[in-house]
Amino acid sequence: MSKILISFLGTGALKTGTGNNAPSSSERQYRTARYRFNNGDIKEHTFVAAALAEHSNIDKIILIGTVHSMWEEVYRYFTEKDGKQLDEDKYFEILEHCNKAGHSSSLDIPYKKLIERSIGKDAQIILIKYGITDEEIQENINTVLAIEEELNERDELVVDITHSFRSLPILLMNLLIYLQTVSRKDIRISHVYYGMMEVSKELGYTPVTELGSMLDISKWITGAYAFENYGNAYQIADLIESENKSVSERLRRFSNLMNLNHLGLLQKEVKNLKAIRNTKYRSLIPGLIITPIINTFIEQFGDISSHALFQLRLAKWQCEHCNYTAAYISVIESIITYACEINHKPWEDYETREEAKKALRENTSSWKIDAGLTDIFRKANSVRNCLAHSLETDKKPMRMIDLLKKYLKALTTIIK
C-alpha cells in the first residue's frame, strides 16, 4: 500500500526575469510560490507537485501532461533540487522538442526515463492528447484508466488539479472516481488539491485548497441512484451517520428488508419512514436526496391497508426496476395473501398460507377464489420456482419478463 500523488503539468508562463538557474534560452517556467496548506504548513517550490509530495509524505509521483508541457523544467527543477548536475544538452533537447510539439504530435518526449528518475523513485510520466476531438478524449480515457495497472492493493491517491487544460483535470477526476468505485484493488482517493495561483499576489502566498467535497458529491450521486432504483440506502446511511444516527439506522433497516424481500416487515418499515421524512440537515444535499426518495416510497406504499395490494405494488416496483426474480416472488405472495384476505383467514399464519396455496392449485377446495387468479398463480408460480431454485425452463428470459408484466397488469384488476 503506497501513497501516490497524481498531478498535472501545464506549459507554465513566459518568464519575465532571470531569478533562477535555468539555462537562459528557456522562456517557460513555473514561478516559485509559497504554497500554504489548510493546517498552516507552507512549502516554497516551483512545482505544486513538489510541495504536495513533501506535505503529504508521498511515496510515488505520477505526472500527467501533453507533449507540449514543460517537461524540460521538470527535469531541471527536480535534478537541481536533489543537488545533482543538470545535463544542459539533454535539457535543451527536451526543451526544443516540447516547444515545437503540438496537438498532432506523437506521444513521446526525449529522455522520458531520465526525467522520471529525476522526479524520484518509481515516478511515472503519462503523456496524453489535448482532448480536442472525441477520438482524442477516448484515447485519454483509455490512457488514464490504464493507471490502475500501475496501482497496488489499497493504494491511496492524492490528486492535484492545479495545472493543464481545464478539461483534462475534470476528465481525470471522473475517471479516478470511477476507478475508486469499481476497482478490485480497493484504491482510495484521500485528497483532491487545487493551488489557487489566481490570488497569490493578493495574499502573498498560494493557498492550496482541498476539494474533498467533490468526492462526497460523487458518493451522494451513486448512493442516490442505488436508493432510488434498488432501495439500497447503505451508502446514504454511511454518509449521513455522523450527522444523524437515527436516520442512518432507519435507512439501513429499510435496505436490509428490501434486500431480504421481507414483505411483512417491509410494509411496516415503509410506514416508519414517515418519522424521518421531514428531517432537517445541516447542508442541502441530504435533504435534496433523502427526503424526495423517502416521499416517493411513502406515496407508493405508505397508505395501503391491504397487505396483498402492498405486495402487488412492490412486485410492480421491482419489475420496473428490473429485479425480476424478487418481483415474481412478490407476485406469488400477493396472490396467496389476497386469497387469505378474501376468505377472512389470517394471512400471516404459515399453515393458513399453505392451505391457500393448495386451494390455488386445486379446483376442489372450499376456498372462494377467482378462476383468473388460480390461472395466474399456477403459471407464475412455475416461473417463480424455476428462478428461485435455479431449475431449467423452456422459457427464454425475455418471455419470462413479458409474462411477468402481463400477470401484473391482470392482477391490478383483481387485487385492489
Automatic annotation (TrEMBL):
InterPro entries: CRISPR-assoc_prot_DxTHG_CS, CRISPR-assoc_prot_TM1812
Coiled-coil intervals: none
Domain of life the protein comes from: Bacteria
Protein name listed in UniProt: CRISPR-associated protein, TM1812 family
